[in-house]
């Protein structure tokens, strides 16, 4: 009888140990399997993000090319034709060139043509700033700031402490950053009620740092609410495309601040 | 003597580890985890009563198991029911009631209070093992985060480890009332698995920390 009881004990211990090993193995295999599936999915998602980024890059590139073409056409064709028209009006001499009606007509025509030429140049510049391609980001931003400063809508102060980095910045990155700053200035003028904006270019090892700040009314709401706006979405997609990151700090009544970190090779 | 200290003081004291973690993270606990916390506290109270009865008054404690088993099944099934829809939850509540009736019938007609409730505990363990397996089968298809980041995975792993390993012990439960060295070995093994279960519960409670808010930076 004692032998039978001992046998049951041994079987119980063996059974418990066996079950313990089985359960531990099951849990470990389960963890390994789930982590493997998770890794595969993450890899797939990363590949998909990379593909989306490529598509976004292609869209932005073709958009820029199209803007450049339209800008050049406007500047070269329409601008030249308008200048020609102005000259024609100037050259036209009627029988009575002292006629007051004729003099008024010439004056108002020339004024209108000058205004159209100025507007076309403005639109052409906005579509594709030639300065960006020839003299780089800092010069293009300075030029854009000067135009806004002259309009009296906003006082923009640009500080550049990253000359070396900006000189070697690829055109694609410079264009993206120019568009982002343009959008930020546009937002400041349209929505913030600010009187002053500061743009500061700095460099860190392997990075271009851009700080943008205005003294407007600031924004309330969470980061997801901020990102819902079309302008912010444009900024995000432009920065994503050049692998830049950003950090927004804003509160109602305390202005708007964005810090952009752009990697440079 | 060592066996006495280990099973009477050290192992019951380890129940404080998950309880402490549960109270530290109490704000982050979901209803399922509050049920598990209630179960652990109930277990600790019943263990203390059994220890006092056995060590202090040399009374037979087999009756305690007859009361403990249906409550244990109720708590753990209620925990699992939180992961399913209302229809399945109601079925599980019905199962809790049916199991309680089964335990009463088992005590009245098959295994008296003077014996261990081997049948009830074995059925209890088998059903809970099935629940654990179903939980993992359901959760394995969730690929939103790592296995270890799911607090409930740790709790269910603890339950599966304890009930899976102790099933053989529950089947031959009645032999464990004898006073010999082999009984001590088996009780020590069971107590050690219980400690592991409590540690896994504690990890589960630790993972229930309230979520941090997201800043505006990317």
UniProtKB/TrEMBL annotation, chain A:
The UniProt entry, under SUPFAM superfamilies, shows:
ATPase domain of HSP90 chaperone/DNA topoisomerase II/histidine kinase
* Sequence intervals crossing the membrane: 12-31
Which keywords belong to this entry? Answer: ATP-binding, Kinase, Membrane, Nucleotide-binding, Phosphoprotein, Transferase, Transmembrane, Transmembrane helix, Two-component regulatory system
Name assigned to this protein: histidine kinase
EC identifiers of the protein = 2.7.13.3
Catalysed reactions listed for this entry: ATP + protein L-histidine = ADP + protein N-phospho-L-histidine
Q: Which residues form the Histidine kinase domain?
A: 73-265
Q: Could you tell me which InterPro entries the record lists for this protein?
A: HATPase_C_sf, HATPase_dom, His_kinase_dom, Sensor_HK_TwoCompSys, Sig_transdc_His_kin_sub3_dim/P
Query: What Gene3D superfamilies does the record tag this protein with?
Result: 1.20.5.1930, Histidine kinase-like ATPase, C-terminal domain
TrEMBL record, chain B:
Keywords recorded for this protein, A-Z: Membrane, Transmembrane, Transmembrane helix
Transmembrane intervals: 6-24, 36-57, 63-84, 91-110, 122-139, 151-172, 184-205
**So which domain of life are we looking at?**
Bacteria
Identification of the protein by name: Bacteriorhodopsin-like protein
Q: Which organism is it from?
A: Mucilaginibacter pankratovii
